[in-house]
Every structure is written in C-alpha cells, then in structure tokens.
Amino acid sequence: MNPQESAAAPEAPVAEDPIKAQNAQVLALLHRLFGEATFTDVHEPYGLLTVTTTREKIHEIVAGLQQDQELKFHFLTTMCGINYPENEGKELGMIYHLHSMTKNIRLRLKIFFPIADPVVPTMTDLYNTANWMEREAYDFFGIIFTGHPNLIRILNVEDMDYHPMRREYPVEDGTREDKTDLFFGR
Amino acid sequence: MAVNDALAGTHKIQEEAAAQRPGQLMPILNDFSQELTTLNLGPTHPATHGIFQNILQMDGERIVSGVPTIGYIHRAFEKLAERKPFYQITTLTDRMNYCSSPINNLGWHMTVEKLLGVTVPKRAQYIRVIMMELARIADHLICNSILGVDTGAFTGFLYVFQEREKIYEIYEEVCGARLTTNMGRVGGMERDLSPAALDKLRAWLKSFPAVMKEFENMFNRNRIFMDRVVNVGPISAEKALSYGFTGPNLRAAGVDYDVRAMNPYSSYEDFEFDIPVGTNGDTYDRFIVRNEEIWQSLRIINQAVDKLPDGPYHADAPHYYLPTKPEVYKNMEALIYHFKIVMGEIDAPVGEVYHSVEGGNGELGFYLISDGGRTPYRLHFRRPCFIYYQAYPEMAVGTTLSDAIVILSSMNVIAGELDA
Q1: Does residue B350 carry a pLDDT above 70?
Q2: Which residues of A touch B71 (CB under 8 A)?
Q3: Residues facing residue B365 across a β-bridge
Q4: Quick one: pLDDT at residue B342?
Q5: pLDDT exceeding 70 applies to what percent of chain A?
Q6: Looking at the complex, does the CB of residue A43 fall below 8 Å from at least one CB of chain B?
Q7: Is A42 at the interface with chain B, CB within 8 A?
Q8: DSSP for chain A, written as a single string
Q9: How close, in Å, is residue A163 to chain B by CA atoms?
Q10: Which one, A128, B162, B215, B252, has least CB within 10 Å?
C-alpha cells in the first residue's frame, strides 16, 4: 500500500447507496428552496454533503433549513473560519456544519469572501450557540459578523492587534536561527 | 413563596433591560447599578474547578446578570496543529478534556484513519471501546462526586476517587501513562491488552458495582442533596438544542441524542446499551443521567471483555503505523518506515473529514482539512463545553450564588477543553 492508493481507497465506502441517496435528497431540497444557481462546488467528501454558496445567501439558507419541516436541520454543530491566502478575492471563509437529528443527516456549508471586506451576517438570531462560535471566528480570523450582539475577542487578550489564525502569522518566530535544520528545513 | 417573589422580581428587571437593548443576550443593567453588588467569581476559586471567571451582578444573594470571561489557559491548539504531523497532535488532544483523555486520543486517531482510509481490526476496536468507556466512567465519577462536594458531601468524593485511581492503573497497563495518556496510534493500539491489564480490568469490574451502589445510596434519594439540586438550573430541550448542548446535559433535558448510537464508530453497534434521558434538564437530572450512564458503560465494558476477539491489535498500514523495535533493528524497510513516520515525511491524502465521538461531556468533533502535506491545513475541534458553557449565565440568573456553583459543577465544564 502506498499513499496514492490509500488516497483512492476512502472513495469506496462513499459509494454506498443510503448515504448517496440521502445526500441527493438534501441537495434536491436545497435546489428547490433556494435555486440551483445558489450552490457551487457540490461534492461529498467521506459521505458528508458539502456545498459552497455566497455570503449574501447564507443567512437565508440556514434559516430556511432550520424551518424546513421535512429535514429539520435544527442543530448547528459547529462553525469555523478558514484562510486561503492564495485564493485572490476569496481569502477568508466560514464553514458551517448543520445536523438534522431526526433524520441523522449532516450538511456542510461554505462561504468565501475577500480578506479586505470580511463582513458576513450573524447567525445569533437563529441559534444561541452561534454567539461564541462567531466571537471565536472574529478573534482568530478577524471576520466581522453584522448584527452580532457582542462581537469582542473571546480566547485571546483584548488588546491583541492581529488575528492569529490567519496564515500570514507563522507559529514560530521567523527570525529565529537556532532551530534551522539544513537537512529537513524546519 | 418568598423565593418565587424574588424570582419574579429579577425576571422583571431582566425583561425591562432586554426591552431597552433588544438582541442583547446579557442585559446590562445601568439603571439599577447603584443597588447591585459586583462580584468576581473566579478566575481562581476553589469552587469553580478550573480557571474561569464570571463577573456577577448580585442583588443581595440573588444573581441578576453574569458575564463569563474565558481563555485563561488558551494554548492555541488549532494553530499548533497546523505545524505538527498527525501523530504529534495526539498529545494536544490529551490536554483538552483531561478527565477523559483516552476518548480524545482515540477520537483523533479515528478521524485520521477516516482520512487515510485505514480499517482497524476488530480486536483494536474492542480495546478502544473498553478504554473509552473506562474514561467515560472516570469522567462522570469526577463530575458527580465533585457535585457532591459542592453541596457539602465530601465522603462520596473520596470514596469514588479510589475507583478512579484503579481506572488510571488500568490506563497505565495499557499505555504507560495516567492523566495525559497519548493512548493508541493511528491504525490501532500501540500494544496489545496485556494479561496484567485484563486481570486488573476483571478485578475492577467485579468490585466497582458495589461501590457505585453505595455512592448512589448516598445521593440519589438523599433529602438534603435533593433539596439542593432538584429544579436548580433547569433548561428546556428546545433551549438546550439552540445552545448546542450535547452529551449528558442534552440528554438530561430529554433529547436522546448520543453519537455512539446515532453514528456508531469503533464497533459500538455490536454492543447493547440504553441511553438514559431526563425530563426537565435540571441539576438533579444531569446527576442521575450521569450515574445511569456509568452503569451503561459498565454494561458495554462487560460485553466487550466477554466478546474480545483474537487477532492483531493494529492495522497493516506500514506507512502510518510504527514497526516494532526489533524489526527496525533488523529490517531495512522497517527502518525506512520508522524514519519516515517519526520525521513526519509521509504525506496524507487531500480531503476534508468531520468525525465526532461521544466525549465525556458531549459530542467531541474533529474537523480536519488536509491539503496533502504532512500536517493538517486546518484542524478545528468541536469542543462540547466551549459550546454549551455560553448558556451558563442564562441558567444562573435568578438563582442564588450557592446554586450557581452547583449548576456550574453539574455542567461538567473542563477548563482545558473550554479554552483549547
């Protein structure tokens, strides 16, 4: 077994019918409620339906899924920020994991937006739990949530002047030389 | 009743404040500040069991509002994980919920295995189930006995701590460590369950039920204890779901959501167990649900020990699983694999995976994005107590200070996991 083979191997269990059928059902619902053009980059890594949408639509979609009587996405499992510095105009992102406990379906929603204008709508009016999750994303990625009742830092000190999870801030101090390794380059 | 009158009074204050500032979860009561006392509960206070601070506004003995401050032991695990090979991240997960480290370790290994497409043999899965359930029992024992301490009953705490010590001795036989266990490896366990470990486990399975019975006799129908915890800090199922509650806290509110049953991992589908649920989600329900879960965990362990299959204790995945030392010394290929794994020279496939396990206090999720390198591109931990601790002010407002302490310890908030 080499790494290339193992990379292909996880695809096999995904091909099982029940998960595929379920995901197709969710995708059909998404298309019916919000229109097909709303979603791009649809794929199912490891059986979890993942779609990308826009920040203009995200609040409407999460609210619509919460109210939907068929699938009942009542639970916001987690949300987190992400930073891809090389994607120009889409450097920052938010990733939402929704869970329908009655049907046991998970759904991953992604939005991307420019780092110069990191403003997205808040979910605190839909889920109480979004409050601290959004504060965390603000703290670490500098994403601004419009309508958030109390958008301040949560884990870092208040007077910190940067957002440390952005890729431009390395874990180690770049000027240190005592850790340079000629052979492994770390 | 005088208590209810006072409660109605505080609710009125809250409602007025909420009307003044719509959308504000925590009312800031500027108008009443002259009558209220500000009390700093924490950051270090013996009754908070960890480093977190609550700035309370008190009207006499009653809490009018509370603002939690967290992050005192933030160690940037998500950032550190972006620089570490997968096997080195295990030691970071230890330090999240340190009352049940094996669940964190093994949950992380399962996430990586899902990404790599490695299938773990049955024996390793059963050993993992045994260790995870032992960890759950240790976690619940600490939480429930500490709740006893906070209501004034110290005996139960000392009594079950001896049992926790025996669980830690079993950990020692399995992985060599006690608290931060670093247990298991990607692909299985690092060593087989030794005869000594099995002997200790069997002896403990025999002796523990009597202790647990006695612990329950002391608390479950104890008049003084019930007066302190019944109807203290209740939360409705709807509110609990909105606040992202999982684990025993959600089940105490009446929702039967358990990751082990809904999305079985590590062969949980082979075992028979019940999911206890409460009715109104108060402190007493949380306590009883945890006690009952200890019995269910015992049931699972007994089944797993009886049915423990023979066979290898790790997958045949030479790219990810370290070869044995004698082989490394004699065999060229094993030496190469050993070197590549230890130096983190093995690339993972590109992909993103979310895997969750039932942790001691809720759904512990790992969201891993791999760009094909030696480290994760992004790793996000869904830490259950970070998510549900934000409901604490709402649950504590309107109660007395001593009730607030009891609510806090019944929620099983672990500072290491809260701050990551």
Answers
A1: yes
A2: 154-157
A3: B356, B382
A4: 87
A5: 84
A6: no
A7: no
A8: --HHHHHHTTHHHHT-HHHHHHHHHHHHHHHHHH-GGG-EEEE-GGG-EEEEE-HHHHHHHHHHHHH-TTT---EEEEEEEEE-TTSTT--EEEEEEEEETTTTEEEEEEEEE-TTS-EEE--TTT-TTHHHHHHHHHHHH--EEET-TT---SSS-TT--S-TTSTTS-SS-TT--TT--TTT--
A9: 11
A10: B162
Q: Is A160 on the interface with B (CB under 8 A)?
A: no
Q: Which fold has domain B77-316+346-382?
A: Cytochrome-c3 Hydrogenase; chain B (1.10.645)
Residue pLDDT, tens place only, A126-140? 999 999 999 999 999
CATH code where residue A110 lies: 3.30.460.80
Are residues A164 and B70, on separate chains, in Cβ contact within 8 Å? no
CB pairs under 8 A between A and B: 127
Between CA B202 and CA A97 the distance in angstroms is 41
Q: How far apart are CA A92 and CA A82, in angstroms?
A: 6
Q: Which of B241, B349, B351 sits opposite A75 (nearest CB)?
A: B241
pLDDT per residue as tens digits for the range B156-171 = 899 999 999 999 999 9
The pTM assigned to this predicted structure is 0.87
CB contact under 8 A, A78 and B115: no
- Provide the number of structural domains found in chain A: 1
> Alpha-carbon distance B215 to B218, whole Å?
5
Q: Enumerate residues 6+ apart whose C-beta is below 8 A from B250.
A: B237, B240, B241, B257, B362
Residue A111's domain spans which residues? Answer: 15-146
The residues, ordered by sequence, that sit 6+ positions from A43 with a Cβ below 8 Å of its Cβ are A50
| The token pair that represents B299 in the structure block | 């049931």
Instruction: Answer yes or no: is A167 within a domain.
Output: no
In chain B, domain spans? 2-69, 77-316+346-382
B37-41/B363-371 β-pairing? unpaired
Tokens read off for B246: 């999982």
Q: Does A85 touch chain B (CB under 8 A)?
A: no
pLDDT value for A12: 47
Chain B residues close to A184, C-beta within 8 Å: 343
pLDDT of residue A183: 63
- β-bridge pairing A92-100 and A105-113: antiparallel
